[in-house]
Amino acid sequence: MKRLIIFLIGFFLAFFSLFYLYITFTKDLPEPETVIPSSLVVEYSDGSPFYFPRALWFNLDDYPEKLINALIISEDEDFFVHIGIDVLGILRGLYNTFIKKDIQGGSTLTQQLARSLYLTQERTIKRKIKEIFISFYLEKMRTKEEILELYLNTVYMGNGIYGFGTASKYYFGKEPKDLTLPEIALLVNTVKSPEYYNPQDLKGNYKKAVIVLKRLLNEEVITTEEYKKYSQELLKVKSHKVVEEKYDEEIFWRIIEELKELGFSLDILRKGFRVKTTLVKEYNEILAKTLSENNAALIFDYVTGEILGYYGKGVHSGRRQTGSLIKPFYYYKALLEGYNLDSKLFDLPIKIGDWTPENFEKDFHGQTTLEEALVHSRNVPSLNLYLMLGDNNVRTFLQKQLKIGGFYPNDLTLALGTLETSHEELAKGFSGLLNGGVVVKPHIVDEVISYDGIVYYKSKTTVENVIKGSRRSQIEASYLLINLLKEVVRRGTGVRARIPGRYIVGKTGTAEQYAWFMGADGEKLMIISQDGKDLLGGRDVAPLWKAIASKIDIGKTPFNISSIYRKLSVIKINPLKYIDYQYIYQMIQEGKMTIDTLVRILKTFDDESLFEFLSFMNSISQDLTLQLWSLLGGGD
């Protein structure tokens, strides 16, 4: 009886100790899908990849049966029957650890997955114990098929590549289903030592890969004749390394930031989503080849809001002083207020407190016209115009009407460009000036598509504001300003950006440590900045702008303000935007509305409205959106 009591006490102590360790090691583990290597695919507008993804996601069905068989036979024959660990392998590992003083042990696919997702590769007893308990956790939380799918997509395959599918494309330029058995043998062999046995350098890997074929022969998966055939073919396999292009990390994080604003988290996106951007690959390549690290540039379609080219730091949210690039904004306000191109402005010495602003040429004309003041970017008459319009009025116009964000100084130096802002904010402001008064928000994400082809998001032009007319309409003011900015390029400070035969308007900007040039045609604009001292927008940046514009199609689209305005005027406030999607989701969660009821309502929507509704709902609940999509027949 005493022995039985001791046994029971020992048994329960062991049981509760193991249970305690299990809870300790697994209680705070995140879902395995949230820690898989990123597999977000980003594309240019033409569908070409922005970079080669290091971890693409493939469904289990995308992997050929011969690959799965080869992997399981080589790595874990009992995968579909064990509980996550190989008991004999662990006992063998304990023997090696304590007798041979070599920490190792047999690892199942589940253990390998646990190690790659949650642990390091350090060879310690503590890590091995954690690995065992996390393997139990994975077997409890996921089916064998789900574990296998996770493993196939996350196992390290050398050269920064994760997953058999990505390795298939990287090393052989193939989809997984198109792999030959010799190629499969090379990939399966890679698992054992990814940096030494990956297919990139095939020398010395053939013999190791033959072992995989030998295992298939021993298990009677292939015949002796097939074994001989594939062993010979193995010697002829050639690696196809992807030629990787460098990409601008500034652009990548700009894309991610916009995706987050749209309700897409990285945890969701890395599950095989494809993001198609508005970027034109040719534009970006030309920008990268022409500009230096001291430059930043933005190419922007001011009718649609699409960002077509993006280069350098601070384009989205940087703070550079604008210099005279600010002037067209309040000149436009003056035109709205009834000023004419020949309106007279004083060009005489001026002093405001201790500040004595000067023209760049250090001279004065006594009096000049509004046109000549802007064409030659004269500071004193521009400041006089600013004062006549009123400091508060101009600030309100810049911030409330043109929606230009940034740091605004608390003094009159704002008139000469001490506003600190970014290329995107300036482009947004210029959109209103050039298209007839409609302020268009820049965007870089065009579509978000899941791995199975469902379009989760499709971009549309976002109008942030329609500028209010005054004594003159927005269209009239835009027409006059465009003619002014044409003269800047034809005979003013922007003459070095002139391209014969093209329709170009522009404006220079020079600040203490920055120089700018903005040039545009009837559809798109390009803003380039250069960082450094003793720079001039017209001398240093305008030629760069011309060099790039000459290689692309800026300047080929003439201005047609009324046509642009008509196109934009059909963009109306979307009433679907004001539906309380959170409350609808809450009602369904609380049983106050059934999904069937919501589906019946949605079936009354036209296709465009339905797409809009699902796009908004997706930001609240992706699971509910997918369910609605399926019930509405979207999966057919």
Write the layout of secondary structure elements.
Elements lengths: L1 H25 L14 E3 L21 H11 L11 H12 L10 H10 L6 H17 L2 H11 L9 H9 L8 H10 L3 H4 L7 H14 L5 H11 L14 H13 L4 H4 L4 E4 L3 H10 L4 E7 L5 E5 L8 E2 L5 H10 L7 E4 L18 E4 H6 L3 H11 L1 H11 L18 E2 L1 H12 L3 E3 L4 E5 L5 E4 L4 E4 L7 H18 L13 E6 L3 E7 L3 E8 L5 H13 L11 H9 L11 H9 L5 H8 L4 H12 L3 H10 L5
Parallel strand pairs: 1-2
Antiparallel strand pairs: 2-10, 3-4, 3-15, 5-8, 6-7, 9-12, 10-11, 13-14, 14-15
Helix pairs in contact: 1-5, 2-8, 2-10, 4-5, 4-6, 8-10, 8-11, 10-11, 15-17, 15-20, 25-26
Could you describe the 3D structure shown?
By secondary structure, the chain is α+β, with helices and mostly antiparallel strands. The chain folds into 3 domains: 57-234, Penicillin binding protein transpeptidase fold; 284-569, Beta-lactamase; 575-631, no CATH class. The chain has 26 helices and 15 strands. It has a 5-stranded antiparallel beta sheet with strand order 4-3-15-14-13, with helices on both faces. Strands 1-2-10-11 form a 4-stranded mixed beta sheet. The protein has a two-stranded antiparallel sheet with strand order 5-8. The longest helix is centred in the N-terminal third of the chain and has 25 residues, at 2-26. It starts with a helix and ends in a 5-residue tail after the last helix. Its EC number is 2.4.99.28. One of its GO terms (molecular function) is peptidoglycan glycosyltransferase activity. One of its GO terms (cellular component) is plasma membrane. Residues 56-215 form the Glycosyl transferase family domain.
